[in-house]
Structures are given as C-alpha cells and as structure tokens.
Amino acid sequence: MAKRFFYLLLLCLGATAALAQNDSLIYAEGKIFNAATKEPITARITYQSLPYGNRVGTLNNSNYSFPMFDNEKYAIIVEAQGFATAKFMLDPAEANGERKVLKDIELSVGNVGPRHPVGHVMRLDNLIFQVSRSKISEDSFEELDLLVNMMRENPTMVIQLEGHTDYQGNPKDNMKLSQDRVDAVREYLIDKRINKNRIKTKAFGGTQPLSRDDTPEAHRLNRRVEVRILQS
C-alpha cells in the first residue's frame, strides 16, 4: 500500500512540475508583412537558440510561434523571394505579461542583392525519401521542379547538392546514404535535361547536424539535402 502511495505521489509531483514548466514557458510570436503595403507575406522563417544553436526550427508561413526554452535568446531569419532578408535576435527578457515576445517583421522590396548569390545555401524542406533509402517520394517532385526551373532561368548557374543524415547509427552507413540521396536528386535534375556538369554533389553523413537534441524533430531537421550556389 505504501509503495503504491509513493508511486502516485511521484506521478503527482511530475505532473505538477510539467504544468509549472508549461506555465513558465515563453513563446515568440509575430507576423510577416510587406513594409509598403502591409499585406501578409508567406516567408521562410528559420530560428535557432543562442549561442550554440542547440534548438532549431523552420516554418513556412505569414506568421510564427515557437517556444523559447531554458530562458535562451533566439536568432530568427526571415526570407521571401523578392524581399530583403530580415534578421533579428529575440530576448525572453522582453516578454510581456502573457509570457510572449511579440515581434512583427516587415520585409522591404528594393536593394535585395543578387537573387542567388554565390555561397548561398537553400534547404530542400519538402524533399522526402523512403526511410533509410534514397528513393525519392513523389510528394517531393513539386519542390524539385522548382529547383529545375531555377536552373533553367539561370543557365550559367552551378550548384552543389549536399547530403546530410542524422548522427544516429553507423557513420559509414550514414555517409553512404547521404551520398546516395544527393545522387538521386542529381539524377532527377539530369532527367529534366539539366546539364550534369552544372550539378556537383557532396556527402556529409551525420557530421554536420543542425541540432544535437535527441528528439524526433531534431533528427528530422538533421536529415536534409541542401543546395549550395557555386556559380550564379
């Protein structure tokens, strides 16, 4: 009986601690809009904790909301085609009475620099492979066709496809899988009549994770293919 009471007490204490943590959690929230017209803009929003980037995330929307864990500051980058990139640092010390850091972000049209500058890296967020394989899901074709169109519109562009896995499992197997996946993307582009000499590949396996958190979301973020502009 005493053992059962002790177990129930632990459950209650755990639930109380979890509720207390949720009650004290601070959220960053805001909207993205055109500085000139004040209309909402769907943008790519990337955020990561500072200073080490242990927690990262990406959103594609005209607004954002994410938790700021462990009272850490966060860097946020907002990108939308045709607009200048916006970069900010969000500080949990600026939270209001509702425990929210509110930051609406205006994007300006104008001096945005080269559309695809050399060295720029883009992540293919909607690229999906079968689990532990290099076969590309049909759901990925739409995003890959956007890459095809970008290269057709920029006939001198040379890219490097960079493959990453999470850091779990055998490092040698991860390196091979990341190479197989970028090779699969390269073949897709070649099948769409993009010159093979314009497409380089590089495999990193699990050596360059975006996050070291041991969570399904972090592992999903680490499994990615990125496009680096070598020549515009």
From TrEMBL:
<keyword id="KW-0732">Signal</keyword>
<feature type="signal peptide">
    <location>
        <begin position="1"/>
        <end position="20"/>
    </location>
</feature>
<protein>
    <submittedName>
        <fullName>OmpA family protein</fullName>
    </submittedName>
</protein>
<dbReference type="InterPro" id="IPR050330">
    <property type="entry name" value="Bact_OuterMem_StrucFunc"/>
</dbReference>
<dbReference type="InterPro" id="IPR006665">
    <property type="entry name" value="OmpA-like"/>
</dbReference>
<dbReference type="InterPro" id="IPR006664">
    <property type="entry name" value="OMP_bac"/>
</dbReference>
<dbReference type="GO" id="GO:0009279">
    <property type="term" value="C:cell outer membrane"/>
</dbReference>
<dbReference type="Pfam" id="PF00691">
    <property type="entry name" value="OmpA"/>
</dbReference>
<keyword id="KW-0472">Membrane</keyword>
<dbReference type="InterPro" id="IPR036737">
    <property type="entry name" value="OmpA-like_sf"/>
</dbReference>
<feature type="domain" description="OmpA-like">
    <location>
        <begin position="118"/>
        <end position="232"/>
    </location>
</feature>
<keyword id="KW-0998">Cell outer membrane</keyword>
